């Protein structure tokens, strides 16, 4: 049962029971339909009603934030989104069955449980259930009624992720409330990690980037991107020339290797991609020196994304900007830096996740819309003006002003928008050769920035490693100073309360710190409200948004 204040409790249950003029609406009308699983009749049943808003069972979002119901710990209940918040659990019968079952469990928690639960707690239970439902669907299970301990153990052995501390929270609550549910659980007792022989992972604590380092990275990034964006035509032409040269040199070296005129060097032999390629050749019984006879040789080479070493001193220069030429080595380093910095700015200035940026659409990933704003003129009359809003998005099509969008659009700044455009531009030569604009933004990181020591098997991990190496190089050059001083330590104490950093430690920035830092500084500077931040981050619950921005009120006092 909902844990509410006395005034809220009287208002809530009195109002709900007025829906039944003969008596108790919850017990006499709603509960019987829940217990029998009468989905057809349940669809139009009111599950919450007050003077402002009503929710029906068929509604997939119960937005309590818009209702009269207020308490110290309340939240919305969301049912139609997966844990990824991008893939609706809709449309198919099995998916709809899980949604209906989760709604019944939520109602049992709200109105019939002997334990008093806050809406925030119930939101956590539904989140756990949706996460579990997603995995069960992949395992061809269509109802919580079919779940057994043996199935969970089997799924764990097959690699399903049951490491989250709260993964079993929802099904255990369903087990405790099954007398109010339309199905009988086959589980005999609450499920624990110990029963399936796995240990739950402690949640990773992402820290706020200290303010000095945060500002230095943004300021240096702005100088780099403004320069690249202002002369993007020159920069893109240089990248095209660079890619053509690499392709020519790689083809030349492949021919030499296949005819035995040169050998793989030590750097290449240490590469994981080369090792896997050589193993594949051996498996297929194909000679490394095949004199160009085996068609499968080239196919395997491409499948394993092998990148070979370039000549030690390439005799080529690039016109990077209108009045700037660079030799091969300098341009390669500059390109690495621009791609890394532009990626960091996209993450820092939007709250996108690293995989969302990696897979973004090269054309539609950065967009603008024009919105009308009202400004007061000097004679106090209202006049309309247009304001440009910059957006980064995972959508694959154009956003139209005023249209409804899924939670996959991130408001950014002009600098974030320009950073994305630079990233898209430097990738365009590769997309043009592949003759497709429907490929993701980073269609081929290993082709854009070739290195014989890299592996592209895990794209997001490789991308994250590349971004980290960008900052380490800038620190080594003295462009950024990632060594913590006492001011940085003080900032970390304010944002984290406790930490293990010390003065003179080298601060390691990870991509997910960008989301935490953006939330912290937006709330700390009072530039954004919690509801707006929740939408920006596509969070299911307000509790998660508040967790990201935790301790921001302390920052205001600095």
Automatic annotation (TrEMBL):
<protein>
    <recommendedName>
        <fullName>Integrase</fullName>
    </recommendedName>
</protein>
């Amino acid at each position: 049962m909902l844990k509410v204040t006395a005034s809220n409790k009287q208002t809530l249950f009195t109002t709900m029971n007025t829906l039944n003029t003969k008596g108790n609406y919850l017990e006499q009308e709603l509960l019987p339909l829940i217990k029998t699983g009468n989905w057809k009749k349940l669809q139009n049943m009111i599950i919450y009603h007050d003077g402002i808003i009503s929710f029906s069972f068929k509604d997939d979002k119960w937005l309590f934030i818009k209702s009269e119901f207020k308490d110290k710990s309340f939240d919305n209940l969301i049912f139609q989104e997966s844990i990824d918040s991008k893939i609706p659990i809709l449309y198919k019968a099995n998916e709809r069955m899980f949604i209906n079952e989760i709604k019944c469990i939520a109602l049992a928690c709200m109105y019939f449980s002997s334990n008093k639960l806050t809406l925030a707690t119930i939101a956590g239970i539904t989140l756990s259930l949706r996460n579990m439902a997603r995995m069960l669907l992949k395992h061809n299970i269509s109802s919580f009624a079919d779940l057994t301990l043996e199935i969970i153990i089997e799924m764990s052995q097959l690699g399903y992720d049951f490491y989250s501390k709260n993964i079993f929270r929802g099904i255990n609550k369903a087990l405790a409330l099954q007398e109010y549910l339309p199905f009988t659980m086959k589980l005999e007792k609450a499920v624990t990690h110990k029963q399936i022989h796995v240990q739950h992972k402690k949640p990773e604590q992402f820290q706020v980037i200290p303010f000095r380092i945060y500002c230095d990275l943004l300021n240096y990034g702005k100088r780099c991107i403004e320069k690249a964006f202002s002369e993007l035509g020159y920069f893109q032409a240089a990248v095209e020339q660079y890619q053509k040269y690499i392709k020519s040199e790689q083809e030349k070296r492949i021919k030499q290797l296949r005819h035995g005129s040169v050998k793989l060097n030590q750097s290449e032999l240490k590469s994981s991609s080369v090792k896997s390629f050589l193993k594949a050749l051996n498996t297929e019984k194909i000679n490394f020196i095949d004199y160009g006879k085996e068609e499968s040789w080239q196919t395997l080479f491409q499948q394993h994304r092998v990148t070979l070493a370039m000549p030690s001193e390439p005799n080529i220069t690039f016109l990077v900007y209108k009045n700037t030429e660079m030799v091969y080595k300098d341009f390669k380093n500059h390109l690495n830096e621009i791609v890394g910095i532009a990626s960091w700015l996209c993450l820092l200035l939007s709250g996108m996740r690293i995989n969302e940026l990696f897979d973004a659409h090269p054309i539609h990933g950065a967009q603008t819309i024009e919105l009308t704003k009202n400004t007061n003129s000097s004679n106090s009359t209202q006049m309309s003006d247009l304001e440009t809003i910059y957006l980064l998005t995972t959508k694959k099509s154009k956003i139209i002003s005023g249209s409804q969008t899924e939670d996959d659009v991130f408001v950014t700044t002009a600098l974030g928008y320009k950073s994305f455009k630079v990233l898209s531009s430097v990738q365009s030569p590769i997309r043009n050769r592949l003759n497709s604009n429907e490929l993701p933004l980073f269609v081929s990181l290993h082709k854009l920035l070739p290195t014989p020591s890299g592996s592209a098997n895990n794209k997001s991990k490789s991308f994250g490693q590349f971004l980290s190496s960008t900052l380490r190089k800038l620190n080594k050059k003295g462009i950024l100073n990632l060594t913590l001083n006492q001011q940085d330590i003080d900032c970390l104490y304010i944002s984290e309360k406790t930490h293990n950093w010390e003065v003179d430690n080298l601060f390691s920035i990870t991509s997910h710190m960008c989301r935490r830092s953006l939330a912290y500084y937006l709330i700390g500077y009072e530039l954004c409200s919690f509801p707006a931040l929740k939408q920006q981050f596509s969070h299911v619950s307000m509790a998660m948004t508040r967790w990201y921005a935790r301790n921001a009120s302390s920052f205001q006092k600095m």
